[in-house]
Amino acid sequence: MAIKVTIWNEFRHEKSDPAAHALYPDGLHACIKKFLEEDPEIRVRLAALDDPDQGLPDEVLNDTDVLIWWGHMAHGEVSDALVERIRNRVYRNGMGFMPIHSGHHSKPFRAIVGTTGDLTWGREQTGIVWNMCPSHPIAKGIPAQFSLQEEMYGEPFFIPKPDDLIFATWFEDGNLFRGGVTYTRGLGKIFYFHPGHETCPSYHNPYVQQILRNAVHWVAPDASCEICDPGCVSQDHPVFQKN
Length: 243
Ligand code: ZN
What we know:
five-stranded antiparallel sheet; four-stranded parallel sheet
């Protein structure tokens, strides 16, 4: 059965910044859709902040196995009610959640993981992404290291201790960053990955593409799990009736 992925994109920079538009003329989300769907087991739907219901009405969110989230300049516009619906779907229904790039400061990431998401920030430069956990499914097919042109994100990164540190990035100005980390919250799995500044070509990099395809499979709810039912939208699931 195909994994149903929704890519949520703020979709503002690509309309207002010529450099972002040149790299991602149909939006970052359309670029990501294209390479995710090279995997026949992944089916992608697109959503944007300025769509009705901020792109995620119940019929879309409740039909999503994995939610990918890219936001940057308009985190504050995302409604708290939507954030709560997303958090519930991760915790109670096992929806996978993948905040990417500045999704570290998004309301859903903060609410789901429990963090400010604050970090050290700097100019675009060369970064080397180190594969810290080669045996992890998210790192399958990824070499020991690869380089990117990216916006610098550095430590300290105020996140709870990750379940696994899959990738760490070294930047040419000397900064280090825990840029690929996993969490489990409720029934849901989360993977944060830092590449994807709107004026950097990271989503055209084959290793970044492979990591995101791998991660979709890893965060997707397990269809064989009897507690975790991706199709269930009930708040009355037996496992939650105890409290
Ligand atoms: Zn950025």
